[in-house]
Specification:
The protein has 110 residues and is mainly α. Helix content is 65%, strand content 4%. The mean pLDDT is 94.
């Protein structure tokens, strides 16, 4: 996947998702890693959108941590996007045409 048309913040969120997976000795970057990366990198926009949807951020973070902790652990392998994560990022890219945007932002990924 080409990340050149992603904003810096969106790229940082994906990198953070990878770092979270690696930090948990996990090879697969799941959608939970992506969401945790979004929450970590862009607290203002992501938190604002989720609060507007009446999402309890503390509960969400706790559940994400629990879910991430249950993913299989491996060692010595480089992380890769799962099909779910890849689909989510492709869907985010599809919003570019719909919203007539130039770059995929954290809002698109969310």
């Amino acid at each position: 996947m080409n990340f050149n048309n992603f904003t810096i913040k969106a790229q940082e969120a994906i990198q953070q998702a990878s770092a979270i997976a690696e930090g948990n000795q996990q090879q697969a970057i799941e959608t939970a890693h992506l969401l945790k990366g979004l929450l970590t990198v862009d607290e203002n926009v992501v938190s604002y959108v989720l609060k507007k949807l009446n999402v309890n951020l503390n509960v969400l973070n706790q559940n994400l941590d629990l879910q991430i902790g249950k993913f299989p652990k491996v060692s010595g392998s480089s992380p890769y996007l799962t099909s779910g994560s890849n689909s989510a990022l492709q869907k985010a890219q599809s919003y570019l045409k719909e919203f007539k945007d130039e770059f995929v932002s954290v809002e698109h990924v969310l």
